[in-house]
Amino acid sequence: MILLWGHPEERPFARVLRALHARGADPLVLDQRRPMTVTSGTVRTAGASWDLAGVKAAYLRPYDAARLPAVTRSPARTALTRHARRAAPALCAWADHAPALVVNRPSASATNAAKACQGLLVEAAGFAVPPSLVTDDARALAEFAAEHGAVVVKPGSGIRARVALADVHDPDRMARLATCPTLFQRHIPGEDVRVHVVGDRTFAVRLVSDAVDYRVRDAALKQSTVELPGDLTERCVALARALGLVVAGIDLRMTPEGDWFCFEANPAPAFTFFAGADQVAEAIADLLHAHRPSS
């Protein structure tokens, strides 16, 4: 049995599900918007139950179900929230220890919630990482900027936020820094390349933008699929494995001098934003389908 857990209308989830259906698979879909219970290795929802011991492959894209509009706007939101808060930890615990292919195990995904820590792991895997600083001290930031020049500010956790150039001379912003430790990095000029790793396969996309963060809505962005030069393919696969990830979205940047830096490895990449998304979805479906029980 193949299990998918998350929001079925979320684009990456829906794309992988469609690819599985095209292969004749009929996966168990656990919709976070619906009540479910998980006890003693059995998941129950909508009057049906399944033994998780039968799961041979799983694709996980869970949100905080208690915050999904389908839950928060429902007249039964109290019951739905209670179910969500009980089911999610149980499914995560199962996913961390199940003798199945899990894309990706929750424990392996945890480094994304601490970007500075993940940066050390990325560096240990042989990639160059921008000089970084986590601080709530404006003086320390000023010294960091004096040493490295242009500095970007970005979220230190897994919560998505806009990456922007930091204005270390803005007194109002510097005063607010004391309220929360923040991640800063030396700004690395160059072209972005997103690499999706799926098992031992890679799919690279070159991104050309006039914005510091190409993901912002008003950014002028051009995308094209590319082949990675040299040994970058092997290095990206090795990095994903070192982090315990079966699927990863690795953010690289090539400087004008031809040097490569790695910013992070995303354990739940929203690959549908990028060129070549169908290839990534097909590769994930291939991986899951290959682990189904033989007939």
Fold topology:
Elements: E1 2-6, H1 11-22, E2 28-31, E3 37-39, E4 42-45, E5 48-51, E6 57-61, H2 69-72, H3 77-97, E7 101-103, H4 106-109, H5 115-124, E8 132-135, H6 138-148, E9 151-154, E10 164-165, H7 171-177, E11 182-186, E12 191-198, E13 201-209, E14 221-226, H8 232-242, E15 247-254, E16 260-266, H9 277-290
Parallel strand pairs: 1-2, 1-6, 6-7
Antiparallel strand pairs: 3-4, 4-5, 8-11, 9-10, 9-11, 12-13, 12-15, 13-14, 15-16
Helix pairs in contact: 1-9
Explain what the structure shows:
The protein is an alpha+beta fold and 295 residues long. It has three domains: 2-104, Rossmann fold (3-Layer(aba) Sandwich); 106-128 and 189-267, D-amino Acid Aminotransferase, Chain A, domain 1 (2-Layer Sandwich); 131-186, 2-Layer Sandwich (Dna Ligase, domain 1). Helices cover 32% and strands 27% of the residues. The protein is built from nine helices and 16 strands. It has a five-stranded antiparallel beta sheet with strand order 14-13-12-15-16. A four-stranded parallel beta sheet has the order 2-1-6-7, with no helix packed on it. It has a four-stranded antiparallel beta sheet with strand order 8-11-9-10, covered by helices on one side. The longest helix is centred in the N-terminal third of the chain and has 21 residues, at 77-97. It comes from Actinomadura craniellae. Residues 119-293 form the ATP-grasp domain. This is RimK domain-containing protein ATP-grasp.
